[in-house]
Structure formats: C-alpha cells, structure tokens
Amino acid sequence: MKFTTLKINLKTKEISMNEIQQEGIYGIIDYALYLHDEVYKTYELDPYDPKNVTVFGKGPFAGSVLPGAHRLVFIFRSPLYGTLFPSTMGGAAYIFQRVGVDFVVLEGKRDKPTIILLQGDGENVSVELHEMELEKLLQIWRSYKGEEGVYALTEYLIENFKDRFDEEFRIACVGPASLNTNFGAIFSQTLKNGKRVEGSEDWAARGGPGSVLLRAHNVVAIIFGGKAKKEFPGENIGDIKVARPIVEGVHKKPMFQVIGEKTTKYRYNPKLKTGGTFGGNYPAEGDFVPILNWQMPYINKEERIKIHENIMKHYWEPFNKEAIETKNWTTCGEPCPVVCKKFRRGHHVEYEPYEANGPLSGSIYIYASDISVHAVDAMGFDAIEFGGLASWVLELVYRGLLKPEEVGLSGKPDFTKDDLILKPVEASEKNARLVAELAHKVAFAETEIAKILGLGKRKASAILDEKFKDRLKYGESFKDYAVFTPLGEDGEICPTMYWAIGNYIPLPIQGRYWTFYQFGVFLEPEELASKIVASALYEFWYDNVGWCRFHRGWMKPVLKALFLEAYGENVDMEEHAKKVIRKLINYAKKAGYEPVFWDSMRVVDLVAAGAEEFGNEKWAEKFKEDKVGTAKEYLKRVLDTYSEILGVDWTI
C-alpha cells in the first residue's frame, strides 16, 4: 500500500513530502511505530525531547462513504504512561483528508508557540508556520470573547485565519493543561461557516498528546483544510454503489439496516428509551458505577444502590429529558447516521468526562457537573485523567492529607457516601465547584502543589510522600488513595470509568479499550488474559485505520474485505495485530517500561472486592485469606497467559 507523508522539521523549517510503500504498513500505527522504533529510536529520548516525533494522520479508508472511517489519529511517546501511545479524534479526518496527505510527521521544536496551517488544492500542499508570543497565548487562554482555554483559542484562530480558506476547515488546538501537565489533550470542534457546531466537540486526549505537541514541538494549533479527493487504487469505496455491496456481501442484509442494528446503543435504544454512552451506561452499571474516588469497596451494596438511585434521578433523568427527548444529537464532523453526540443546554454530554468529573469526583447533580466538566474541557485536559486526579485530591483534602489552601481550593469537599445519599444536590454543587477550581489551578500551575499534581497521581505521590510524610500513617503512601494502572517505575494512566478488572492490568496500551473492560465479572486469570488479547487485536485495527469503535459491531467482519477490494491487499488481520502488539511491547521494554505489581492499595482493594461483588466465591475466599499475595498471584497468572498467547515476555 502507498501512503503520502508530510514531514515538518519545526526547528529548521525543512518540509518534505514522500510516498512510502513498505511491506507490513497498512495504517498509521504501523508507520508511526516504524518511525519511533527503527528510525528515530525515541525510546532513548525523553517524551519532551525536541528530537522526538509526533505522527498524526488518517486511515486508509478516509474518503470512503462508510461512516466512522474519519478519525484523526495521533501517535507519540506518552509523558504519562511512558511508552508509545495512540490517541484518536472523531470526525477530524473528514476535513484533514482534503489536505492531500495521509500522515504528518512533526520533529524539532519552535522557539515560540506556533500555529501550523495545512492546505491542499488537490495537487500541491502548502505549509505555513505562524508564531505568537507566549504572553499573548496565555492572555487568550484566560479570556477571549467570553470564552476561556481551548474554546477561546479556537475563537481567536477562527477570527484570524478563516479568510485563508475558501472551503470548510478545522482546527485542532491545546489548552494551558498542555503547558503545565503531562495529560494535556488536543481539542477540535466541527466548524460550519466559520462557527463552532454545538455538541460536536471531540478530543485526542488519552496519554497526553497535547502536552507532547506543545512541550516537545511548541505547537499550539494545527489548522487544516483543502480540496484534495481520495482515490482508491482498487474498488472506489467513495461511491455508495460500490461500498454498499461489499458490506452487504459480508452481512447478508441491507447496509444501513445492519449499521443501525449494530450501533443502537450510541444512537437510540428504544428498550431503554435513551441513547449515547451517558444514556446507556448508567442504567446498565447500577451500583457498580465508580463513585467518590473509587471507594466502592468500602461502601455496602444497599448504600451504593441508594447513591445510584440519586444518580438516575439527578443525573440521568435530566439528560434524557433535555438531550434525548429533544433529539439534540449531532456527529463528530463526518456524515454518520449514528449521531452519537448528545448535547443539552450547550453542553456536549458523554459518559467518561461526566463520570470522571461527576460521580467519581462527588457530583451526581448534572447541572453541577456541567460546571466542572466545562472547566476541565476548557483547560484542555484529558477529562478522564483529570477526573481521576480531582477525585483523588478531593479525598486527600477531605481526609486532611492535603490542605485546601495548599492546593488553591476554597474549602473542603462533602466527600462521603452519606453526602451523596442525604444531600446529593448540595454536596454535588460544592464538589463540582472545587473540581472546576482545581482545573484552573493545575492548568495554570498556580500553586506549588498544583504544579506537582500536573505530573500525575503516581509521580506526584512520590513527592508528596516526602513533603508531607508527617501526615501519613506508618507504611502509608499518597498512592494508596489513587487509582491508576502502573507501568515501569513511574508510568501511569487512569483507567476508563468502569469497575472492570481488565482495566487495571498493566498492558502496552492501557486506559483505552485494548483490554477486556466488562464491569461486574471476575474471570479466571487465564480467561481474562485470553479476552484481553482478543479485544486488543481489533482495537488495534480500529486505531490503525482511524475508524470509530462505535461502528465496530458491523465494521469488524468487513475490514478484511475492504482491504482486498479497495487496495488489493489480502491482510491476515489477527496475525498482523499480534505482530504489532509484540513490537509495541518490545518498544516499551526498550523505553524501560515493563509490567509491575499494583503500588496502590486502592487498586488492590478494587480487584479483591471485585471478586466478591462480582460473584467469584473461590477468588473471594483467597483474597480474604491473603489479599496482597492473592493479588500478586492473580496478576502474574494474567500476564503469564497474555505473554504465552502473544509469544512475548510481558510478566512481573
């Protein structure tokens, strides 16, 4: 397969375009891994080293008429997890494809914050670099046209660059979180006629891509658009008359019927009378919903049920009334029948951001969480990672291990189960306000502790343990209140918002869905490992070809046929995925990041309690006899089997 690459050296301003055709490269992860591992050897570099590279681009099926094929993928060495990491942004490749390149490679670093303009006319690609002063950038982030953070910067860029484009364009930019933390995200929103489309916001967030973009390259925004059109060497799947028979040949039913059936959860589920991740997850999870910094193991089931009832009343029902019943639905920017983006009162509502900065952080009143989530998003954070941090900090402040004034907070939170049972609205309003305050303090590094928190929970704990050792009980650590999946000596990532054992397993890619993330089940370690591998093999492919995983139900069995018809490539899907995962493991090990045992007692408790809560009596008894020893046995057996299946050494 042929791909067009655009390389931009930000230091020297050297720009080159090349066609690559290399065996085993079918998508952007394949290419980026080759560059990081074999060409630049970035495992030897600090993630913020200017010699590092960031690779972003589209998949081989962008430009087709098939919905979901237009995610923009960023691949970088994560300053948080420590190893190579992919992060994807919905819909953005629908506009990016018009630039006329597949992949962009950024290397080197500008002296000042820089805006990259990419534009294609179908034959040529123009690249412009526009600098701005840091003071000006900070001023915009603070306030511009009534907005702040990434929203303010987007408005500024629209105003100053919209006249450069004759057609629709799109902006991807970062906020102050990328300047001062390891978990800054890259934000983008659909634009129509130079205005932001309400509810269409999307993010490349996990792992800290925004932080790398700004701190390794000094790039604050990428603006792109053009007139180029995709040409497929085989069957033209840009034509619905060509694409439809391929899908229907696999599924044996009408294309749009099967797409509708396989994406019901994300559009509208008539059985639940709701839709989207927010609408579907809360009824399904019940009392397993993560709350109060993952304190579920210490709250009995009856009390968790009462809290869940309040969540349904104060969180889910208003969402359903204001977003679902009114059909305030849109897409991430590409034509798509799923219209998975649900919004209400100007707020784009998805499960993970509203869960991490809502119930997990002590807010179960949606109007309160509107304030906290908007602040976190505006500051340009990975909302999952920040919610994990915020819930941890609020618990530390509640327990007296940190003082509000040290963090820069206006007071202590109401952070008990009784608060959420007896005064859910009042407690939520207080806690959400504190989360919003914390977002600003950490994003702008306004206090010494806020600056430390920007490192992430695990790295910050090492500093806080020494700084406030007199506040800890013997043998205790600030880490013991934090929930993260560890990798190596200091790598970490907040798991996705499910009480799922597979979320805590240290894997080459974690904190996304390259694992088995089913909540409410406790499997034998060998079965869990098998399911993790089975999931990862195709989660890799969705990222490698930039396809929305919401479409996985119908897309997964079609992908092999698409490669064959559009490119004449007969791809062994599973074997290639295994090969790449083995390479990712090899890269992580060379970077010094290998599996380790959980160094947070909160995580051990979540795993141990999971055995009992999810009905595995055998393992529940083992945990009661020897909690830590059993946890070590379980994790080792999972990783031993994972290693055996993949033919690697990824064990503790």
Q: Care to describe what's here?
A:
By secondary structure, the protein is of the alpha+beta class. Strands 2-1-6-3-4-5 form a 6-stranded mixed sheet, sandwiched between helices. Its EC number is 1.2.7.5.
CATH superfamily of the largest domain: Aldehyde ferredoxin oxidoreductase, N-terminal domain
CATH architecture classification of the largest domain: 4-Layer Sandwich
The shape, in one word, is globular
Q: How far is the N terminus from the C terminus?
A: 38 Å
In which order are the strands of the major sheet placed? 2-1-6-3-4-5
Strand content: 5-15%
List how many beta strands DSSP finds.
19
Overall pLDDT metric? 97
CATH class of the largest domain: Alpha Beta
Report the biggest beta sheet as strand number plus sense, adding barrel if it closes. 6 strands, mixed
* Helix residue percentage: 40-55%
Low-confidence stretches: none
What is the CATH topology assignment of the largest domain? Answer: Aldehyde Ferredoxin Oxidoreductase,  A, domain 1
